[in-house]
Design goal:
The complex is a heterodimer of chains A (114) and B (111).
Chain A: E1 5-7, E2 10-13, E3 19-24, E4 31-38, E5 42-50, E6 53-57, E7 64-68, E8 74-78, E9 87-94, E10 104-105, E11 109-113
Parallel strand pairs in A: 2-11
Antiparallel strand pairs in A: 1-3, 3-8, 4-5, 4-9, 5-6, 7-8, 9-10, 9-11
Chain B: E1 2-5, E2 9-13, E3 18-26, E4 29-37, E5 44-49, E6 53-57, E7 60-65, E8 70-75, E9 84-92, E10 99-101, E11 105-110
The chains are: A mainly beta (114), B mainly beta (111).
């Protein structure tokens, strides 16, 4: 158990819908990262937050957005869902988001878009 | 940008040794991580290399050569529970600490 929690574990929804994925980092960690893992794409970095501020952006679609709240939990919002958005979504956290820090991953949310 | 290559799949026998290679190209290198991921589960941290050389941690060792853009993960005394995907990830000198992951190497340990 990494100490990172994610809810829900599974989510089934329809195309065109909007969902929110939630992540709580390890106690004391200020930085949160979101990743998408699909069968054909591997693990892809989406976005990073540090202490409530966006720090780095990866291959995140405009239909997706995220935020980190004052209590440091983070939410990833996915809208206008498409079949291709079906994937495992992981959240990871690290202490200060600095180089050399290990990122600890949560158990993931498995999203299925029908 | 960054490019990371590792073999797709490897098979080995219980008790044996397996070496998983990872080659990378990056605009500025700032560390290399190895993660283990069982199917459907979260990646778990195995090792971190930022300087050249070998890092040993029990049955797992990781090696880095920055000049060659090359790393390997060595798994010794293989156990059935080591059957998993092994992900090589490189951190470049970009904003934040973006990790770029390779596609992963699926290791199958046979009795």
């Amino acid at each position: 158990d990494s100490g990172v929690t994610q809810t829900p574990k599974h989510l089934i929804t329809a195309t065109g819908q909007r969902v929110t994925l939630r992540c709580s980092p390890r106690s004391g960690d200020l930085s949160v990262y979101w990743y998408q893992q699909s069968l054909d794409q591997g693990l892809q970095f989406l976005i990073q937050y540090y202490n409530g501020e966006e720090r780095a952006k990866g291959n995140i679609l405009e239909r997706f957005s995220a935020q980190q709240f004052p209590d440091l939990h983070s939410e990833l919002n996915l809208s206008s869902l498409e079949l291709g958005d079906s994937a495992l979504y992981f959240c990871a956290s690290s202490v200060q988001g600095q180089a050399g820090e290990t990122q600890y991953f949560g158990p993931g949310t498995r999203l299925l878009v029908l | 940008g960054q490019n990371i290559d590792q073999p797709t799949e490897m098979t080995a026998t219980e008790g044996a040794i397996v070496q998983i290679n990872c080659t990378y190209q990056t605009s500025g290198f700032n560390g290399l991580f190895w993660y283990q991921q069982h199917a459907g589960e979260a990646p778990t941290f195995l090792s971190y290399n930022v300087l050249d050389g070998l890092e040993e941690k029990g049955r797992f060792s990781s090696f880095l050569s920055r000049s060659k853009g090359y790393s390997y993960l060595l798994l010794k005394e293989l156990q059935m529970k080591d059957s998993a995907s092994y992900l090589c990830a490189v951190r470049g000198r970009a904003a934040g600490n973006k990790l770029t992951f390779g596609g992963g190497t699926r290791v199958l340990v046979k009795p």
